[in-house]
Write a structure and sequence with these properties.
This protein has helices spanning 2-5, 15-30, 54-61, 78-88, 103-115, 131-138, 157-171, 192-205, 226-242, 275-288, 294-304, 307-337, 358-366, 391-401, and strands at 36-37, 97-101, 121-126, 142-147, 174-178, 211-217, 246-252, 265-269, 350-353, 370-371, 373-375, 378-382. It is α/β, with parallel strands linked by helices. The two termini are 30 Å apart.
């Protein structure tokens, strides 16, 4: 049954694998074994403790009763939608059509229900975040993979064009989930040239039928190239304002504000005020979860109005971005020292190491006390939980496990 639902992940059981590996790693660590656990998907410090941004928690502790207890509007507090949108595109006066969602995953799930019919496919760059399979299938869809650019950054435009045109011919519409910049799980971002090629492909495709580009933006605050991230967002804004393609964004505060359990997020289409789209999003919210927690929404509004808090948060993001960069550089250097391909990183919590037989390599790594997540495209390594000092041991174990 799993192979029928997830043909692109044949031989992999998705989230079950991650939970099992993480559980085994924790058990062995508790027994005193020297374990490297790179399966985690949350930011940890070098002692293995969950990182919590103090600026955010101070705002959380200062929330009043009426900022926490009452129901939020079905589609979310408009001030929250505006504030979260402005975190990504400063100066954008209003979120357009949009709704609050339980994290970025909720935004992705709603997009399937509103832009595709059962049996259709979502296009997404592969490697992609494993739950994309679950989120799409729950909406009656599946993932049509598009190749992530090679190491030189060049987009395989021919492969993209064929897949997208085939989808348009068979479905009469196209929905593309684009996790860029700071892609999960490669840790890379599209080059300016690759992004321009995507814009050209989508503009041409839109002449054949409706095209929706949904940006999946989760890791932007953790990057060694903040200016490149800003430029990428500005490029997406300029493309959206042309109007030939409907552009939206799945926004999340899980990673950016280390409020994983707050389940705060939004689905926004900032460049349209389509009343029919807004009504459809409201129906989806009511039908799936009624409304989202008010407290995270109140916090984002407070943050948006507090310049000093924003400065303090930016400093915290800079610090942890530097920690992640140091970890990525240490891993890259250690791998190359063993004669292996490196691990280029520009942002996010992960890198992906292409290997033959990912499941087999994963099992062999476990004998060395090293835990990673096998995927159809290689090994997902969570640098969010990998200490820089563990990189040489990790590389040595991988060398022996290939």
């Amino acid at each position: 049954m799993l192979e029928q639902l997830f043909p692109s992940r044949r031989g992999f059981s998705g989230e079950d694998i991650i939970f099992a590996l993480n559980g085994e790693a924790q058990k062995r660590a508790a027994a005193g074994e020297p374990v490297i656990n790179a399966t985690v998907g949350a930011l940890l410090d070098d002692r293995g403790r969950l990182v919590v941004l103090e600026t955010v928690m101070k705002l959380w502790r200062d929330l009043g009763d009426m900022e926490v207890a009452p129901y939020a509007p079905i589609t979310g507090d408009p001030a929250f939608l505006t504030a979260l949108t402005e975190r990504h595109w400063p100066g954008l006066a209003a979120p357009g059509a949009g709704c609050a969602t339980p994290g970025g995953s909720g935004a992705l799930a709603i997009s399937v229900r509103n832009f595709l019919a059962p049996g259709m496919a979502v296009a997404a760059m592969a490697p992609y975040w494993g739950p994309y399979d679950t989120l799409s299938s729950e909406g009656g869809a599946w993932i049509a993979p598009l190749p992530y650019p090679a190491a030189d950054g060049a987009l395989d435009a021919a492969a993209w064009e064929k897949t997208l045109k085939d989808l348009m011919a068979s479905q009469g519409r196209v929905l593309l989930w684009l996790n860029d910049p700071c892609h999960n799980p490669t840790g890379r971002s599209l080059t300016k040239a690759a992004r321009a090629a995507v814009f050209t492909l989508l503009s041409d495709l839109a002449k054949l039928g409706p095209v929706t580009l949904l940006l999946d933006l989760a890791y932007l605050d953790y990057t060694c190239e903040p200016q490149a991230v800003r430029e990428a967002l500005d490029e997406y804004r300029a493309f959206a304002e042309k109007g030939s393609v409907l552009v939206g964004a799945a926004l999340s505060i899980s990673k950016s504000l280390t409020l994983y359990g707050g389940r705060g997020g939004a689905l926004v289409f900032s460049w349209t005020k389509d009343a029919a789209l807004q009504a459809a999003l409201a129906v989806s919210c009511r039908g799936l979860f009624s409304n989202c927690p008010r407290a995270p929404q109140s916090l984002v509004v407070k943050l948006n109005r507090d310049g000093k808090a924003q400065e303090a948060l930016a400093a915290e993001h800079k610090h942890w971005s530097e920690v992640l960069e140091a970890r990525a550089r240490a891993l890259d250097a250690a791998l190359r020292a063993k004669g292996l391909a490196g691990a280029p990183w520009q942002g996010g919590f992960f890198v992906t190491l292409p290997v033959e037989d990912p499941m087999g390599v994963c099992e062999r790594l476990k004998t060395h006390g090293v835990f990673v997540v096998p995927t159809p495209w290689g090994l997902r390594v969570g640098i969010c939980g990998l200490r820089a000092g563990d990189a040489p041991r990790f590389a040595a174990a991988l060398k022996e496990s290939l």
